[in-house]
Write a structure and sequence with these properties.
heterodimer, A: mainly alpha, B: two-stranded antiparallel sheet, 16 helices, about 70% helix
Chain lengths: ~450, ~475
């Protein structure tokens, strides 16, 4: 025990170590505050839409009581992707993707990908959240704390002393590493505690996994530094090698993989879908009305009783046309979905090779800020949209008076989904990478 | 200061470095990265360009294929504006992946620009994108640090520095010579990239997508030259000022981390924290409120439109709108479009103001951060910056307004005044020849003049950085110790 205390004192004696520890804690706290702000803004947007929807519907009813078809041309209904407070730790893609969608019952494809107000400079620079601090900066701190673990002893001549005094040099090194790991664990626990308080996190499996994976990720970087220092080169060389590894793993490889995925899977389908849904609807203004209505009844046979009104403008025909915007672009839409899935699959596969990318995707997944979550939300929005349609279609076709409908029931709805945790998938990539590093170090350790 | 001595030091540095095996390993890695980024950059540029041109054509074909119909139907049929990617995007992709690629343009509504690359990507995109510009801005400085960190400190450590000085060389000559030497080495990295870009621009470049493309290229090249000189002299200075080579390297790496990773990210995050963007809902409902106040053409009892009708009837000396010499519904929509567009513009400009406030912190931090300065110059000159994006939005919206108003005027002129409302059917229609007459949207990138205005602070700061580094070399020449 006394030995540990000694090593600990030795470790935190240097000014650089103190400074970098302090810097990372400050940045971590800054990250948590930025994350909290993001979650708060999201919550404020939800509160706002709840209040607004009631007034909005009231106004529409008072304006268009006699013409429910026209009312639903304007009326918008909110569907919300509720952010978990964990999004404050990993903002992920939730800053780019809208979390509150307000839709009309007209063609869905034309509204599906509408974006929020975005400043592309913010998106490009990325968020300084806790996940950034953990993924990018923790490895650097680990490097700063460990790069001269052996070399400072050899260079100051104390290595021989160690060789004489301690039973095994390996134990000596591992003990020193353990002390640093403990120090690190302290930092991680401290930052997660602050996050729990600031973000008002309830204890959850997801939070525990985030913490656990951060610790594992940290362990991975310790195995890397262990591998590099086991070569027992000079301090300068080790520092250089470790930083080069950091640069390659954290910046160059992800950027390269990204360039590969972007050029391998371009998404022209998105633009094709946009045009197809526009044409699918608008062209129907000039084509045979009966044909349009027949196609509509093919999709929803339950409305056949409303017949085939083809004289002049009528809402049945109008909403049948709007429906065709979705129905006629189905092929393009499915091609788009397939392409997105392919992209995701490739990304996940590539990410499983690199612990930092894996951790980012896992964080986003656990916090509900991933792309797949967004796609699920958009698909659920589609279902919500259809529910609205099926509710309002008969009312429109029978030309109900708007005031006969209970509009208060249309409160903004929330999208909820369970996060399905597969422990092996979360843990294995990083664990295997760490094991690999340990195995690679064995030949060097033997020479100690 | 004797230039001859400076030259000797520079040549000497060049020879020492180019003799090292490690240098060639580093160089080979860099060239490989260059090749990979060039291929993926050019490929991506080409695919994106073709996809967008193809879809622009497809959207136009279905516009022109419309039969005779009511012009208001065409105003809603609308069209898509595609943002064509600038040729220089293959060098510096800038904000490309975060900008939407297309916007649907129709009457009454200002739609969002959708389908950015980022929307369809997993969290991986946020690690950054490999581009030739990224190599120059981020990787090359790091390599120069590695190459040059020990240039003076090692001489001091092994005693050659004292010898040189005793033989009559001055520190000023030494610092300038070594800086120029390192700068010359950096050209070995820069020139291949510039050549690749030059070649690609000659073969597949499109001058219509970058106004004054070649002048832009020259400014980019000159700016990177200046930047690399600044980096070279900082490296040499740090080497001269540090007591040991190891410390010089650590300091340089600290500078790199701070200026490349931490500072830009923090300034942007802080900007975002300080100047919140309104929610889309509050943005839209503010506009809605103001439109209702100024005149809502969809409300039959709106006072603005009622008084407008009365005055129009009075001027034409008729009592019914159906007796007017033009279609009154078209007239109302023209007025409505004017009011809503104006209100929207005002709010939109407010929004852009918020974005600019957010970005300004980063933009002006180029005066304390040469890395930001070069990043800003590079993407602004390449038309992949924020201003180019808003420029596209402005142009698309101007086209949208023109589209809506042209259709309203067609309605006023060709649709019978007796047709009070509605746009359905085949009786009240306009000849389809008019659709072809209305020109397609063609995206031209931001003009060179506007680009220069945008890049001016960064260009100025780059110039100042060069002066600073030269004067630092001069000032510090007096402080360097030989031992």
């Amino acid at each position: 025990m006394r030995l540990y205390k000694l090593y600990f004192q030795q470790c935190i004696r240097s000014k650089e170590v103190w400074l970098s520890l302090l810097l990372i804690i400050i940045l971590g706290i800054l990250g948590i505050y930025i994350g909290a702000k993001h979650v708060n803004r999201h919550q404020a947007a939800i509160d706002e839409v709840k209040l607004y929807q009631e007034q909005h519907l009231k106004r529409q009813v008072s304006l268009h009581n006699e013409d429910i078809g026209l009312l639903l041309y304007y009326a918008k209904f909110a569907y919300i992707n509720t952010l978990s407070p964990l999004a404050g730790i990993a903002i992920g893609q939730s800053d780019i993707n809208p979390t509150v969608k307000r839709i009309t019952i007209k063609t869905f494809e034309g509204q599906k990908y509408d974006t929020d107000l975005l400043n592309p400079m913010n998106s490009q620079s990325g968020n300084l959240d806790l996940s950034f601090v953990i993924i990018y900066l923790f490895p650097l701190l680990i490097i700063v704390l460990t790069f001269n673990l052996i070399s400072e002893e050899t260079e100051s001549g104390t290595w021989r002393l160690v060789a004489v005094q301690s039973k095994s040099k390996l134990t000596f090194i591992i003990t020193k590493l353990l002390v640093r790991m403990l120090l690190f664990l302290g930092v991680v626990v401290f930052l997660f505690l602050i996050a729990t308080v600031k973000l008002k996190l309830a204890f959850s499996l997801e939070l525990l996994w985030m913490f656990g994976m951060s610790v594992l990720y940290m362990f991975f970087w310790f195995t890397i530094t262990f591998f590099v220092i086991s070569f027992r080169k000079s301090t300068g060389f080790i520092a250089l090698a470790l930083l080069a590894i950091w640069l390659v793993i954290i910046i160059l490889l992800p950027a390269g993989i990204n360039a590969y995925i972007t050029s391998k899977y371009p998404i022209p389908e998105a633009l094709s879908t946009a045009i197809a849904q526009r044409d699918g609807y608008h062209v129907k203004w000039d084509t045979d009305k009966r044909a349009t209505i027949t196609k509509f009844y093919d999709h929803y046979p339950q409305f056949k009783e409303y017949g085939y009104p083809t004289e002049g403008f009528n809402w049945l025909w109008y909403y049948a046309m709007q429906q065709m915007g979705d129905d006629d672009s189905k092929g393009e839409k499915e091609a788009l979905n397939d392409k997105i899935k392919q992209r995701e699959k490739t990304s996940k596969f590539m990410a499983s090779i690199l612990p930092n990318m894996h951790l980012q995707l896992a964080f986003n997944y656990l916090a509900g800020t991933s792309m797949s979550r967004q796609m699920n939300y958009l698909n659920a929005t589609g279902k919500f949209h259809e529910k609205l349609r099926l509710f309002f279609y008969p009312k429109i076709f029978e030309n109900h008076k708007a005031e006969m409908i209970d509009w208060a029931q249309f409160k903004p709805e929330h999208f909820r989904t369970d996060i399905n945790i597969k422990p092996s998938r979360l843990v294995l990539p990083t664990l295997l990478a760490s094991l690999l590093m340990v195995l690679l170090s064995i030949p060097n350790v033997r020479k100690f | 200061m004797k230039w001859n001595n400076v030259k000797i030091f520079a040549f000497n540095f060049w020879h020492t470095i180019t003799k090292l095996k490690a240098f060639y390993i580093l160089y080979a890695i860099f060239i490989l990265l260059t090749a990979y980024s060039a291929v993926s950059g050019i490929q991506n540029y080409n695919t994106q360009k073709n996809i967008r041109l193809e879809h622009q054509l497809k959207a136009r074909q279905s516009w022109e294929a419309n039969p005779d119909k009511h012009p208001h139907r065409m105003a809603h049929f609308g069209t898509f504006a595609f943002r064509v990617n600038p040729s220089l995007a293959m060098f510096d992709s800038g904000l490309e992946s975060y900008m939407g690629n297309t916007v649907f343009l129709e009457a009454h509504r200002q739609n969002s620009v959708n389908f950015s690359e980022a929307v369809f990507s997993t969290g991986m995109l946020r690690f950054g994108e490999l581009s030739l510009a990224l190599l120059l801005q981020l990787v090359l400085p790091l390599m120069l640090f590695f190459i040059g960190f020990s240039t003076i400190s090692a001489d001091r450590e092994n005693g050659t520095l004292r010898m040189l000085i005793s033989q009559g060389a001055t520190f000023k000559e030494l610092l300038f010579g070594k800086s120029i030497g390192l700068f010359a080495v950096s050209l070995l990295f820069l020139v291949p990239i510039l050549l690749v870009v030059l070649l690609a621009l000659i073969v597949i470049g499109d001058e219509s997508m970058n106004d004054l493309l070649w002048l832009r290229f020259i400014i980019i090249a000159l700016s990177y030259l200046t930047f690399l000189f600044v980096i070279s002299s900082i490296t040499v200075l740090m080497s001269a000022k540090s007591s040991a080579s190891k410390n010089a390297l650590l300091r340089l790496l600290g500078i790199w981390l701070l200026l490349v990773v931490l500072l830009p990210k923090s300034t942007q995050s802080i900007g975002n924290y300080w100047f919140p963007i309104p929610s889309k809902l509050s943005f839209q409902s503010e506009i809605e409120k103001e439109v209702i106040q100024k005149g809502d053409s969809h409300n039959p009892d709106d006072p603005h439109y009622n008084s407008l009708r009365d005055s129009v009837l009075k001027v034409h000396n008729v009592s019914e709108i159906t007796d007017l010499p033009f279609n009154y519904a078209g007239f109302v929509m023209r007025e409505g479009e004017k009011i809503t567009s104006q209100v929207y513009r005002e709010h939109y400009e407010g929004l852009i103001g918020i974005y600019n406030n957010q970005n300004n912190l980063t933009k002006y931090s180029s005066f304390i951060n040469p890395f930001t300065a070069i990043k800003y110059i590079s993407m602004t000159m390449s038309n992949t910056d924020f201003a180019s994006y808003t420029d596209f939005q402005d142009k698309a919206d101007a086209y949208r307004y023109q589209l809506a108003q042209t259709m309203n005027e067609l309605q006023m002129e060709y649709i019978s005044p007796k047709k009070k409302s509605g746009s359905e059917g085949k009786t009240h229609v306009v000849d389809h020849e008019h659709w072809k007459e209305f020109q397609d949207f063609e995206h031209h990138s931001m003009s060179f003049q506007d680009t220069i205005k945008e890049a001016l602070p960064a260009l100025l700061s780059m110039f100042i950085w060069m002066l600073i580094s030269i004067s630092l070399l001069i000032v510090n020449a007096k402080k360097v110790r030989a031992i």
